[in-house]
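Lecture notes, unit on protein representations.

Consider one protein chain, 511 amino acids long.
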Amino acid sequence: MARKNKTITLPTSIGFGLTDMMGGGAFTIIGAWLLFFFTKFAGLTPVEAASIIAIARIVDAVVSLFMGSLSDNFFKFKLGRKFGRRRFFLLIGSPLMLVYVLLWVTGMHYLYYLLTYLAFEIIAAMVLIPWETLPSEMTKDFNKRTKLSTARMFISGTGTFLATFIPGQLFGILGQDSPMSFLINGAFFAVLFAICIFISFRSTWEREVSPEDMQKYIDAKKEHKSFADNLKGITQTLVDFGSTFKVKSFRKHLLIYICSMTAKDAFNAVFVFYCVYALNSTSSLAANLLSFSIIGLPGAIVYGFLMIKIGPANLFKISYSTMILCLLGYGAVYLYHPSNLLLTLGIISFVYQIGRSMLEFVPWNVFPFIPDVDEMITGKRREGIFASVMTFFRKSSVALATFLVGAVLQAGGFVQKAPTQSVSAVHTIVGIMLIGVIGLLLVALIAAFTFKLNKQTHGILVDEINRLKNNGSKENVDPKTKQVVETLTGYKYEKLWGGKTKAEFPQAKAN
């Protein structure tokens, strides 16, 4: 089912990006509303509600860790050779998206909510991790990858907007206290996600498996593997995961990504509580303010242009600084209660969503270029492993952060189903926004000042890889190229491309 026309056109880019309707939409709804739904309508305590999210994401994180390696090697199976080692998971993930609606059923017990949420998280990881590697599979060109990623983030922004706009409309129609709003919302998005993922399956392609890798597979099939051999294979996979941290650019990228995305999730988790309990307003107001996420749609086009012109590090700085200022603004609104409350909140929320949409745009636009840095060290293509490690740490950190939010809320005196909350509970909600969220953004901002991977440095790196692949001599390296390569990899040039990194990366070899 491989596509014959493998040109990165606008329809191709949109088709690829449609999967992030689920990535942007489902997790925006979950981040903003699931904790609120569990405590207000399902009758769970903050700790019970947060523990569901935390447990599911930890289990999912472990599954995700191996998902990339599985997709890297899925060509070994007949299904992988027929449908694609990455795209097969889109094909089966599409109908499984219908599980999403089960999250929003009321009147169930703790175990039901835990199992349904766990199932959805695993299905989402099964789809997203292989899908996230596709830009690296489809093209090596920086601008074409940026085109794919820009379309992806435009679709993600659409999903984020719909995920905030539609619940607000349902609250207005069915009332603030109707759990049916959540169930209808879940059914609509479950069908939408299934359709979008199937379109992505039909719109994308993968790089052909090299004859060398195929021959290794054929040779391996002839060998009987003992338990010790299988254990060795698992150990090697874990070693491969650990080796990703030896890539300097990836370490910095992961730190920025985890801190900033966890900050965004912590904000989403408490913002509805902030509006309903700290400002004594409604969930409709919270939904309407969050719906300013629509700025992510035109923003994705602008950010794609800026990504090329000023580089990811500068976009990181603009994003985090903007969000920190807005969070301080939310704190000021709580303290001083301005007379023009709605206008003030509207302005702060609009600006915040500019920073937030930029925060979500940049990391996965940077990701396709990380495996190129790794190739300079190892001589291998390991997109799936890097995607797995990113997803593992993202979900693990979010699990911990979500549980801490629930635990801190309960310790602060929050009571489930109560129409109002105590002063200490309200102060806890505001404190999470001003201390927890801002603290994480400050760490990401500081790290962004040392991030050096951009279009120019990536181009120099790829040119050097191609030169070495064409039997170029390492002794003839240009001094500027040498400096750039060392900065991005974190290794002395002499250790790269078949050098002494073999001791640290046992499977490293120059192609």
